[in-house]
Amino acid sequence: MKRNITFFLLCISVMILSGFSNKTDFKMIKPHFQKDSIKVKVDSLLNLMTLEEKVGQMNQYNGFWDVTGPSPEGGDAEKKYEDLRKGRVGSMLTVRGADQVRAVQKIVVEESRLGIPLIIGFDVIHGYKTLSPIPLAEAASWDLEAIEKSASVAAAEAAASGINWTFAPMVDISRDPRWGRVMEGAGEDPFLGSAIAKARVRGFQGEDLSAINTIAATAKHFAAYGFAEGGKEYNKADIGTVTLHNIVLPSFKAAEEAGVKTFMNGFNELNGIPVTGNEFLLRDILKQKWDFNGFVISDWASIGEMVTHGYARDNAQAAEIAVKAGVDMDMESSSYVDELVELVKAGEVEEALVDDAVRRILRVKFELGLFDDPYKYCDAERESVVIGSEENQKAVLDMAKKSIVLLKNENNLLPLKKEGQKIAIIGPLADDDNSVLGSWRIASEDHSGISVLEGMKQYTGNEIVYEKGADLLKKDPTFINELEFNFNDKTGFEKAISAAKNSDVVILVLGEHGFQSGEGRSRTNLDLPGVQQELMEKVFGVNKNVVLVLNNGRPLILNWADENIPAIVEAWHLGTQTGNAVAQVLYGDYNPSGKLPMTFPRSVGQIPIYYNHKNTGRPVDPQPGANMVFWSHYSDEENSPLYPFGHGLSYTSFNYSNIKVENSFAVNEEVKVSVELSNTGDYDGKEVVQLYIRDLFAKVVRPVKELKGFQLVELKKGESKTVNFSLTEKELGYYDQNGDYLVEPGDFEIFVGGDSDATLKSAFKLTK
Ligand code: NOJ
Fold first, then answer.
1. Rounded to whole angstroms, what are the CA distances from 128 to 138, 197, 297, 382?
2. Same domain flag for 100 and 61
3. 355 noted as active-site residue
């Protein structure tokens, strides 16, 4: 009670200091005054704080499930409780559930001197309890509205469960499918990645951050984590400034422009400096050039890890480096809470830096409305209504269908006939209702997904037989660190082959388990894991009508399948509604329209492989077929990928024609491009129309193609439409080595089509 009163008095004093006598007044005023009023409140509160309390705001602890007793994990729970009471904690992560969060919030609000509420973070990556497809899959939809909706569903569920901050979206661009975390991003392209970054931030944060169904978002991992050398997790990134400014940073900038409230730095070093201690990235670019006014959180223990990197002598120096570089909150390394007060007292760190960090953190807490009601996200009744609602299930099903990519469909094997068929469903992942949930499954229950088999059984017109064929893992994992591979089990082969032999069509569900991609899941070999390739070949040996349904979190090497299997469906890890989405696509109740957000290589040796590569000085075989040596190629593999970026088929077919653009434009004019799209097949369908440019010569060499526009166009069968694009300086320029944006007059080519191999082309000139 005493602490409640303290908190109440504090709020009143803050209100009075800010010039507003009550909350109603505050809400009546215009938005920009509201912002200013937050500044006044933040400053007033800061004035009341001791140095220890300020540093406390910069400290984030990992949670413990039972907050009323000692923690089951680790022995430091008592210290954490004590720190909560002393105002030495500003945030917690991994605490979830209305009651759990209320319990920790209550400790700080009622027992700490100032009662400043905690901001509660969690990795709400692709849903909270009702799971959406993994982010890479969602990116394959190219559907910004659906992606925004998916993030808003995740936010609403998390917010009903006490969480007010997600560590998402991951906006790291990556060209390396060996890196397991490509599943968590939007793929390889900065233009698509930027559009998706904005959609996700809008989805999580909504229009009003203080609403009870929105949460603060995080753009992570700043920066270049996706360029880990060799695709090896946590490895260094060595990239030049042209790649940094043109490929790595745009999606972060986009998130910032969309108003993202926080940034998280990565674990990696960039060109020799750990990004956690990287002043150039955090201060010069993020906080100065982009004028970001939210706060920066470290990644898990990444401040302390600067010691292991060999960049800081000890934790104290690591804390000093990080705070000077611009990291405002320390996730779980305790370096700030243990060292910063002394560093300030010793004159090593200016208190102004601490003040700046705390201002940023408090601002976000005010914007979330935590000072109005610290328990606003802790309503157990709302939690029980919102989470897992029918409406949310519908939204994730919609997202799942839109994420599916039809990679191949020879002789129109798909869609399947709905009656009179015997269908064998085979594969270690076919009846897996756990793997489909993907890598970040937060509050979902184990086995709460719908397997492909279950989804297919919803259609009752055909006879279905199921055979697992092989086991991919030794036991069913419920956490990412529980994988035990089973690479040799062939005990189910015989039955699977016999089922295939006696069926009209085989649905083979193969790929990676949901935990085989994600953090710490780098691979050197991108084939189908274990005996799955052999199973596929054996099944195909007895029945050619095979539909391969892939479950995976990254591009895989699929050469044999592409050569032999008539139909291939990329179904990623689609979350809770996986089976229903797959079945609706296989049966043609939903015509697929997804397009790959990442190139699928022919071999691991081609990696990094990406569509927006450079031409080089020797791009083509000077004497085709003459086996010449001196051109940019591999002597044992083609240059082209197996499936290019942007690839994806439909049950119908589309024709592109009549591309139009005027001959020349001044640099500040809008370049208008139009193209005719016709649905020439037998189904209504949707096409992602993609526009690429090539800046033919420039002060810094430009890629052979760059995506600069895309649109989802729905056409009835037989229908045609003119699709219009407009390009401005924003799309036509690029960043030079210094990070300066240039729009240079000169010649451009333009390509429009259904993937990055688009050949329908025109050209224009940009004049001064
Ligand atoms: C480490 C991951 O890199 C980061 O993305 C995540 O948000 C934190 N762990 C917290 O779980």
1. 15, 19, 21, 15
2. yes
3. no
